[in-house]
Amino acid sequence: MTGVSGIGFIGGALDRADALRHDTGALAAALADPAARLLVLDGLLPVADDGLLGWTALADLPAGAQPILLGLDDGGRPHFTALTAGMRVDNAPAMRSPALMALLASLRAGEAATYAAARSVIDWHVRHGFCANCGTATAMFRAGWGRRCDACGTEHFPRVDPVVIMIAEHDGRALLGRGKNWPAGRYSALAGFLEPGESIEEAVAREVAEEAGVVVTDVRYVASQPWPFPSSLMIACIGRAASDVLTIDRNELEDAIWVSRADVRAVLAGEAGPFIAPPPYAIAYNLLTAWAAE
Amino acid sequence: MTGVSGIGFIGGALDRADALRHDTGALAAALADPAARLLVLDGLLPVADDGLLGWTALADLPAGAQPILLGLDDGGRPHFTALTAGMRVDNAPAMRSPALMALLASLRAGEAATYAAARSVIDWHVRHGFCANCGTATAMFRAGWGRRCDACGTEHFPRVDPVVIMIAEHDGRALLGRGKNWPAGRYSALAGFLEPGESIEEAVAREVAEEAGVVVTDVRYVASQPWPFPSSLMIACIGRAASDVLTIDRNELEDAIWVSRADVRAVLAGEAGPFIAPPPYAIAYNLLTAWAAE
């Protein structure tokens, strides 16, 4: 289901074992299992070798670190990651670096998915140590899949932020845009966060209208994938543009262009074209591939 | 796009006017516009008459209330809702009452969508008055579409929680389940929150496996809608079940059954059948309708 030629960050091999999170006794047994494995992240970066994530024995859990259950493998072996004491994520700009992206591209199928889940949950803990309802410090519960406030009783759960990413098509051409400070020549599908009170289809239409001034209808869902920077759910769609006349919001986009199927096919095949394609583990790559194949 | 026969909570008539949220001068002008309208909620309940939401002049903004920009109508008139001082949402169980559901069903197309956006954003403000990163009290910014912490500088934005809701099909029958304490006879599509690090398709497969012990593949997207209790994005899908042998998780479901297309068509037509259908403004209704029509 995944790998460089598939959809990024999906196809993880672990069963999340939700029931275990709610069963204190079973969780204690998993934590005491000598076969239990631990995924240690270096800050939020993965440690990987030869395309595989670097696992160690859970017994190597650093002092003061709190284990987070990632799930069980086919043999029932529990796998954890850890929130280490004093972990910081405010060096985040380095996290989406070319070096990380190259490392992710080297991971075998499914490994990036496991990393994505671990990274998003750890990052959420680090940035959500206090109760948004009352301001008191909270504590991890449910094997790391939540935080609870003892002062007001509120339970908090990791965020997943849905993002729509879309191609507006008109007369056989696709609308692509580029943000400020992107690598030279790089264009990709427009995208934006879905807001409370709107459907996926409405968010697609709103974003294209806001960024490019184009009315979009007939929105079709194509695919989804997680994007752990920090915790997005990417929802890829194609819609029909009523016009190819653009009114670009220069606060959002540096530029936007219409590209033909022939252009997209050439670029995806590694040939020269009017733009440089997004990387294969970004869903924009799959979205362009799907559109080019229509 | 909406109304009782369409998809619930979509088709709102207001342009969200994102640019206005970032433009202090334009926002001040909108707030001073004598034509500006205000949607007052009674707690979190809508005030409605004859299928229309009850709007008043923005000049009627209660003392101490903070306006939240909902958007502009076709004539450019700004529309606001308000976070009133001391508003509480901890009487939430009453919020999803039969009375509210009946009122929502009576609203004209698009009105429930405007209400959904207002309700979700207000509810988020009330439950997120403190910085999750450092515990300090935060303040509204961006015309109500965010909160900022002056102590640590963190910006917070309203949550949207993606939920997958799905029909697993096997040999022409659909899997439905019922939760504890549901109205007698009511069955609906299985559903659950999507977690960090998984795609829509993976979440669908995981939820059906967890709740009913059935392996699901070939997941297809059907439709989406907001569900403002408090801020879900419902993502409806159909998948293929590998077997019709159920292993029900009794912590999650009170019961689960397989129903035929004839059963579903009868129930949706208001005839007697093996279950009572979900209400039309719930996406499960549209999902069942889509499946029955295949």
TrEMBL record, chains A, B:
InterPro entries, alphabetized: NAD-cap_RNA_hydrolase_NudC, NudC-like_C, NUDIX_hydrolase-like_dom_sf, NUDIX_hydrolase_CS, NUDIX_hydrolase_dom, Znr_NADH_PPase
Cofactor: Mg(2+)
One MF annotation (Gene Ontology) recorded for this entry: hydrolase activity
Protein name: NAD(+) diphosphatase
Keyword Magnesium found: yes
Keyword terms: Hydrolase, Magnesium, Metal-binding, NAD
Superkingdom in the source lineage: Bacteria
Pfam families xrefs: NUDIX, Zn_ribbon_NUD
Provenance organism: Sphingomonas mollis
Gene name, Swiss-Prot/TrEMBL: nudC
Domain Nudix hydrolase residues, every copy: 158-282
Documented EC number(s): 3.6.1.22
Gene3D superfamilies noted in UniProt: 3.90.79.20, Nucleoside Triphosphate Pyrophosphohydrolase (3.90.79.10)
